[in-house]
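User: I'm preparing a small set of examples for a lab meeting where we compare how different chains pack in three dimensions. I only have the primary sequence for this one, and I'd like the structure in token form so I can line it up with the others. Please keep the answer compact; I'll paste it straight into my notes.
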Amino acid sequence: MKKLVIIAVMSMICLGVQAYDFTIDGLFYRVIDQANKKVAVTQGDSKAIGSITIPETVNYSGLIYEVTQIDRYAFYSCSDLEKITFGSKVETIGESAFGYCKNLSSVLINENLVTIGESAFEYCSSLTSFTVGSKVRYLSKWAFRECENLENVKFNEGLTTIGDEAFNGCKILTNVSIPNSVLEMGGYTFLGCKSLSNVKIGNGIVTIPRYAFAGCERLQTIILGSGIQRFNECVFNDCKALASITILNPVPPTLYPESDSWHYPFANQKATLIVPQTGLEAYSNDAEWRKFTVKPYEGISYLTIRQGQGGVLRERINIGEVYNYNVVPDEGWRIYFVTFNGQDVTAQMIDNSYTTPALTESAVLSVAFEKIPDNVQAARASQVMVRTDGYNITVKGLTSGEPVSVYTSDGVLRYHSISNGTKLQIPTSGTGVYIVKTPEKTVKLAL
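Assistant: Understood. Below is the structure token output for the 447-residue chain.
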């Protein structure tokens, strides 16, 4: 009998079972910070099924606790769990929290999620898509290993590290675009992603790790950012369909190991190597890279500039180069916001200038201007926010009954409405400069 008890205890330790403090609506909670009233969802006496929503807060014994964490193994092997929705307070998904949830097909995360732990969703064979939130910095190793039906993954700017084997065995993943903010990828990252056909890697990656794309037998094109300096062994092993490699660094990266054909980074050298015009001679003279068919980048790409006081400009660009854009507001106006490919980059402005990353394709830079308010308007105006997706206009922070008008640059009224809530979405009829007016704020933007 004593032997059986010891085995049971050891099994609980191996699975990372956490003792729970209370249960509410079928979920089990563990207090992780009594002083600040924070709890984690943890493993309990029964397994979750169907659709589960993690609440923002729970009330226990008259105290309100924030739900900030999903414990390791919290929903491990809940084979009948189908959908999980995270409350806005959840910041951490622990190790193997949803591992082997074979029927989990929908995961709706919040924008406050910071950490996705090791093996968090491994072997979730019904999961088809996932968006890595903008506050997630580290995507741990094995996070989505063997999610065999994962077809789409969106990485947001802000992620810095993708761990070892994070997407190993995701057999129907088709396209990957890694943002400029990612500085490091672990080994075997996309090993065996047999349907992967197109990959774009941003300017932050310096080294492509060992076996990163090995076994991606349908991979045809890859674009590598301007930061790339080194390829480790067997990066593209068995990638026999690879036809086009674009490298935006004009300095040829090192191929490792230089003299070991068994571990050579590329399965073959039949692919066309496309490089910046400024690096053409260096690649053509390099002992390793000249074995490829080396060509300069010849595609036509553009930087579209939507400026609230100048309309829409379109400038032809050279792939791999950076561009600086200086903004000079008209008298009585100031810069309101600046976006690059939909991402707010206002904070990156230096002396009213914005420098793009090395461009890998056509891009859009948008600049909006705000009329400088007087002192009476200033406090209220700070609550009203005007934004655009390039096609429509959204006004937030309104009070009910507040009028909103939209004019063309020559003063023609195109839209007028009275707000019945805090948010108003305004359709537009075409491109051009528009002036959005509320009682406290005036904004000029271009669509």
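A couple of notes for your slides: The CA atoms of residues 100 and 138 lie 21 Å apart. Residues 2-14 form the longest helix (13 residues).

User: Perfect, thanks.
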